[in-house]
Amino acid sequence: xxxxxxxxxxxxxxxxxxxxxxxxxxxxxxxxxxxxxxxxxxxxxxxxxxxxxxxxxxxxxxxxxxxxxxxxxxxxxxxxxxxxxxxxxxxxxxxxxxxxxxxxxxxxxxxxxxxxxxxxxxxxxxxx
Length: 128
Fold this sequence. Notes:
Elements: E1 8-10, E2 18-20, H1 23-33, H2 44-63, H3 68-100, H4 105-127
Antiparallel strand pairs: 1-2
């Protein structure tokens, strides 16, 4: 799309995504964020620009070259982050059940979707 993978490096600390490493990357980020200052947050143009920005950054993340070691480190970090998020969701859901006698259905949907995704992934990888 528009962004070049040479302008960015993989974000290793503090989340997911990419971080600018050249002046072109910083200029790209500034130009892509600038329209958000002038467009209403609930407008169609705002959401269209946001979707375009996310798609373009996603494209950069997919095309980013990583060696085997970087991919393994990223996989371990993502796995650990997912386990912590699952743990927090389960603990909070148990708190809601015990303290409020209610359950937020969104959390149940998240946990079920994660279990289904893991099952499908394991089936795919075992048959590959």
